[in-house]
Design a protein that fits this description.
Blueprint (H helix, E strand, L loop, with lengths): L8 H12 L27 E9 L8 E8 L17 E8 L5 E8 L4 E8 L5 E7 L5 E2 L7 E3 L6 E7 L5 E7 L5 E9 L2 E8 L22 E8 L5
Parallel strand pairs: 8-10
Antiparallel strand pairs: 1-2, 2-3, 3-4, 4-7, 5-6, 6-9, 9-10, 11-12, 12-13
């Protein structure tokens, strides 16, 4: 069926409407293209790797900072007060100014095994929660004396959750896992609770003294895990 427009008024009105409609989004262009503001090497003379980054914004804008975590094989590291612990791979957390012009501090997190930081999240006061994997059982900070542990390590490597205060001092270190290999891969903060995710080959799980919620099914290989840590009493 065909429709004829007997008079030109309707067609003229339609064309006028199309003329004032905005152009499709694909026809619009960005007036300011992205550009590289600054960059820097980060690490020492050995092999170094940054795995994650987070930005802290203070209410008044005077304490803005950049936090990074990863792993290092370097015998010395920018901002660390003393050499890394043990002659192998260590996890680290560094705080830099938001404009990348200075390092505020670096905290090395090391054991007698291979360790690395994977993700970090920031609390409201600038405290840092970092997760990763540790293959040793005795944690030391910047080659200092071992620190108290919230939970002991297993023999095959564990995930970990560690808290540093705004000045970079280690508050506590929590091994995450059981008898098998484990790794913490993600973290987020919600008030007084910290959520950690990762993978585990441990059976049964031994993440904490609390009763686990068995929503998922344990498979024959490694499994994902989700855990919540109450940090409301941490100062």
């Amino acid at each position: 069926m065909s429709v004829r427009i007997r008079h030109g008024g309707a067609l003229t009105a339609l064309l006028s409407l199309l003329a004032v409609l905005p152009l499709p989004a694909r026809a619009q262009t960005c007036s300011v293209p992205p550009f590289l503001a600054w960059n820097t090497y980060w690490g020492g003379s050995g092999a170094d790797e940054v795995e994650d980054v987070a930005v802290f914004r203070s209410a008044d804008g005077t304490q803005d900072a950049l936090y990074v975590t990863g792993r290092t094989d370097s015998p010395t590291f920018p901002g660390a007060k003393t050499p890394p612990y043990a002659p192998n791979t260590n996890a680290f957390v560094s705080k830099l100014s938001a404009d990348g012009t200075r390092v505020e501090w670096t905290r090395i997190l090391g054991t007698e095994g291979t360790d690395f930081g994977v993700r970090l999240a920031l609390g409201p006061a600038g405290e840092v929660y970092v997760v990763g994997r540790a293959e040793g059982a005795n944690v030391a900070v910047d080659n200092a004396a071992s620190v108290p542990l919230v939970q002991a390590a297993s023999a095959k490597g564990d995930g970990f959750l560690a808290r540093l205060d705004a000045a970079g001092t280690l508050s506590w270190f929590l091994f995450v896992g059981g008898a098998g290999p484990d790794e913490a891969l993600g973290v987020t903060v919600d008030g007084g609770k910290v959520y950690v995710v990762g993978r585990t080959a441990s059976d049964p799980l031994n993440f904490s003294a609390s009763s686990p919620k068995k929503l998922g099914k344990r498979g024959s290989d490694s499994d994902a895990f989700i855990l919540q840590v109450d940090v409301s009493g941490t100062t």
